[in-house]
């Protein structure tokens, strides 16, 4: 899978921008706050119709405009597919092959990608919500039905939590049981799909991590289901507690992941270097996992991560990705990229202006 070109209209600090990309490696070079990350964010938005940096859509629209558009041409095994996402005060419109997609699940997956940014290093030691978001975003790309189930689970969860905010004497046990059944119907599907995904991710990540550590460390990724046995029974048992707390205390919305190397919890006892290696292993493992699921390699976005990794991990990242994925990288300097292939495109970014350098 390749992204051949990108067109931006009123996205962030870009009023109009058109870029053609190299099929292997594209480097965006410039100082901080010049607009490098905005390019990667635009690619991410084109793929997933949302930003990885903000949940406030209006921040994506150039301050003088009322509407923005991101468009691109994707090359896949089945041919070329033009993609387009428009965002304005009414919402977003996503088009694939010039046809409007009414459901997000029908659009997501047209362009699969892996994003590796400094905040991804928090995957190991950060809050559980970040790890749940990681599962949701990656699963949503490769299995559209997961998005469908996720939307319905969150809708059922919101409805149940809203009902639990009533005074306890106004809560009807029979109606609460109906809400339980709806939550369980969609929640069990999320749990099943997450379990299968983490099983495969663990398989690939173990191989990558063994290579990165020269077989000195064995990595294990554990899916920590918040539902221990029977979801419906556990919900029923917690009716009194949930009514008292006015929230749903059990379900996949409280799942987590645990990363173990050599029987040690990396989040609690691992060094910063070990935590970064685990995060890198997970991201690199996704390349082959997505290929197994979709038959195509995803594109890879690297947002200023080279400065966060030592020389050995930089080379490991480059060696693993090149030849498989089309890669987009932002950096402030080329000094730490001595072993880059000669066949690439370098774009200099300065105050929202982009020029391609001659090799």
TrEMBL record:
Positions contributing to ATP binding: 30-37
Highest taxon of source: Bacteria
Q: InterPro entries of this UniProt entry?
A: DNA-binding_RecF, DNA-binding_RecF_CS, P-loop_NTPase, RecF/RecN/SMC_N, RecF_2
The UniProt entry lists the main location of this chain as cytoplasm
Task: Recite the UniProt keywords alphabetically.
Answer: ATP-binding, Cytoplasm, DNA damage, DNA repair, DNA replication, DNA-binding, Nucleotide-binding, SOS response
Mention one GO biological process in which this protein takes part, according to its record.
DNA synthesis involved in DNA repair
Pfam families in the record, alphabetically? Answer: SMC_N
Provide the leader sequence positions: none
Any GO CC annotation of this UniProt entry: cytoplasm
Q: The RecF/RecN/SMC N-terminal domain covers which part of the protein?
A: 3-354
Gene Ontology molecular function: any one: single-stranded DNA binding
Q: Where in the cell is it found?
A: Cytoplasm
* Gene3D superfamilies registered for this protein in UniProt: P-loop containing nucleotide triphosphate hydrolases (3.40.50.300), RecF/RecN/SMC, N-terminal domain (1.20.1050.90)
| Task of the protein | The RecF protein is involved in DNA metabolism; it is required for DNA replication and normal SOS inducibility. RecF binds preferentially to single-stranded, linear DNA. It also seems to bind ATP.
**Family the entry assigns:** Belongs to the RecF family.
Name-wise, this protein is DNA replication and repair protein RecF
Which source organism? Lactococcus fujiensis JCM 16395
């Amino acid at each position: 899978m390749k992204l051949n070109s990108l067109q931006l209209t009123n996205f962030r600090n870009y009023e109009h921008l058109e870029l053609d990309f190299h099929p292997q490696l594209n480097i965006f070079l410039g100082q901080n706050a010049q607009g490098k990350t905005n390019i990667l964010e635009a690619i991410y938005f084109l793929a997933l119709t949302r930003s990885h940096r903000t949940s406030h859509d209006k921040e994506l629209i150039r301050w003088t405009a009322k509407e923005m558009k991101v468009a691109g041409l994707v090359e896949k095994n089945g041919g070329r597919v033009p993609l387009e996402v428009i965002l304005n005060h009414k919402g977003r419109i996503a088009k694939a092959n010039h046809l409007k997609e009414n459901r997000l699940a029908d659009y997501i997956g047209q362009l699969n990608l892996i994003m590796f940014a400094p905040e991804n290093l928090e995957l190991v030691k950060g809050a559980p919500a970040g790890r749940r978001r990681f599962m949701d975003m990656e699963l949503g790309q490769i299995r559209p039905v997961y998005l469908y189930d996720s939307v319905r689970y969150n809708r059922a969860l919101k409805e149940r939590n809203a009902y639990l905010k009533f005074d306890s004497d106004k809560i009807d046990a029979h109606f609460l049981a109906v809400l339980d059944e709806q939550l369980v119907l969609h929640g069990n599907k999320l749990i099943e799909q997450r379990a299968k995904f983490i099983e495969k991710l663990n398989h690939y990540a173990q191989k990558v991590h063994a290579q990165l550590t020269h077989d000195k460390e064995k990595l294990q990724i554990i899916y920590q289901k918040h539902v221990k046995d029977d979801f419906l029974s556990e919900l029923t048992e917690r009716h009194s507690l949930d009514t008292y707390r006015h929230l749903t205390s059990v379900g996949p919305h409280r799942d987590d992941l645990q990363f173990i190397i050599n029987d040690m919890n990396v989040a609690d006892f691992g060094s910063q270097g070990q935590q970064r290696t685990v995060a890198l292993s997970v991201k690199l493992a996704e390349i082959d996992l997505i290929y197994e699921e979709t038959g195509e390699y995803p594109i890879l976005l690297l947002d200023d991560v080279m400065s966060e990794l030592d020389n050995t991990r930089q080379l490991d990242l480059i060696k693993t990705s090149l030849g498989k994925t089309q890669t987009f990288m932002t950096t402030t300097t080329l000094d730490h990229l001595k072993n880059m292939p000669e066949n690439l495109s370098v774009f200099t970014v300065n105050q929202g202006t982009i020029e391609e350098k001659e090799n």
